[in-house]
Amino acid sequence: MQIMKVDPRALKENPDRMRQSKSSPQADALMLATIKAVGIVQPPVVAPETDGGNGYIIDAGHRRVRLAIAAGLDEIEILVADAANDNGAMRSMVENSVREPLNPVDQWRGIERLVALGWTEEAIAVALALPVRQIRKLRLLANVLPAMLEQMALGDMPSEQQLRIIAAAGQADQKEVWKAHKPKKGDTAPWWQIANALTKKRMYAREASFGDDLAQAYGIEWVEDLFAPADQDGRYTTNVEGFVGAQHEWMTSNLPKRGGIVEVNSWGQPELPKKASQVYGKPSKSDHTAIYLDRDGKVQTVHYRMPEATKPKGAGGNEPITGGDDADAIAAPKARPDVTQKGHDMIGDFRTDALHDALGRAQIEDDMLMALMVLAFAGKNVRVDSGADGTFYGGKRFSRHAVGLFDEHGRLAFDQDQLRVAVRSVLIDVLSCRRGMSNSGMIAGIAGDAIGADEFLPNMGSEDFLLCLSRQALEASCAEASVQLRQKVRETRAALVEHFANEHFVHSAGRFAPPADELLEWIRAGAAADVIGAGSRSNDGDADEAVEEQAGQVEEEADQGDPHETDGAADEEHDQDFDQRAAA
Fold first, then answer.
1. Could you give the CA distance from residue 110 to residue 117 in angstroms, rounded to a whole number?
2. Who's near 386: CB < 8 A, 6+ residues apart?
């Protein structure tokens, strides 16, 4: 072999080269920047032509030659080798097969060696076509304890998050922790234990409300997190006490009118005064403001309202005192419910099928899928096996969705499409609007409204469903659809069936969006810490629902407008059986 200089434009490509696929534009840009900075480090391998020509054919280095021409180089060094009988095919294959990226530890040490030789971080970044921030990251990793680096060089690498924690710790702390968790010869290091031992609580500057004056007064020194996103303020401090003290002093100096500092409970929620109700909407002028620190040390603000003082009634008040048997005797007559129990059962089936179709086919963003998963497991029909304590059963139906996310070695290995299919399948198994034990409650309505499941509901303008509507509900549907009322309920129903034969009808009770007052009540109940109180309210609600169901049955039996509107003895017996099963 011999080395010589030639014009890269005079070299000819080898049609039998090993790497036939084109490289990515990003990889070409990186190599082009390196060639412009330091030239071609490894000369391409060429061989003389064997068909009588006097040129050279490239055996290895087609991409280097092409980018050297793009860089405008007039001459490059080449390594001339004897022509192979297979036109260099085997040589090219061997070279591409044994090529391997540089060991990370060697890369860290190499950058440190370049710095010791006088290279600046900016010059190294230009030569390696890397951002300066990446060079600084690598320099930080090069300061890991030498004993840990030796273990990493053996191929025993920690995860990226663990490596961040280790690199951010001091040499003294690393040495002490490594002495306690050093692995035996031939074993892997317990990196998770080492990272946990070196973990310190961080308070970030982006969460601070105070300025530099208070930071200096409390002895807070910000440290740059080189692993944080480039567009985010990554400064942090491990001086938690000083950070919290500065935040409290800032809150004391910036209290709003009718405001005060409150403590937080073990769940990180503010402890409001007794009888205070939190304001979730726009606060009024008479409302109070509570300021507190969350678990991340960030200043948070909530508004609350105190109950108004009640005026005495009777002798001193203008309103008379009412009560006794006469007050109990006056009661408004109960109206027949708009939809019967069978109608609600049909609505539950309609909404469940539509919800499942929407979860399987509708366009849903990934973040919405994750939010729906959280909502689904908050449903009242969900029972999940837990490994915390006690004995639990069930949950096997979800395992068939999870096994597809693992490879043959038992490691998690999936792409985004597999994850989306698994999440949609789990949501279909969890969320339900059917009446009975599988009903998810308001959670299913919120989920269906979020993903537009109303569009998947079937046409409810059928004879079977309209039979479940009361007279007033039929009249309201006629007014909404601009259908003229008839003399008899049966004729009105027939007119609606004819009208909705070619149109899509969805009753208001069948839509997914829950009433605003019920949704706010559910939010307040979920935010309350008194679980017993929430349970008693739920029991009261079930009792009221049972009374309304019995009243609906009585009204159905008393309806004389149409024989089809009377459920009959069989339907009454069916409803009673259903109530007994629900009570059980």
1. 11
2. 392
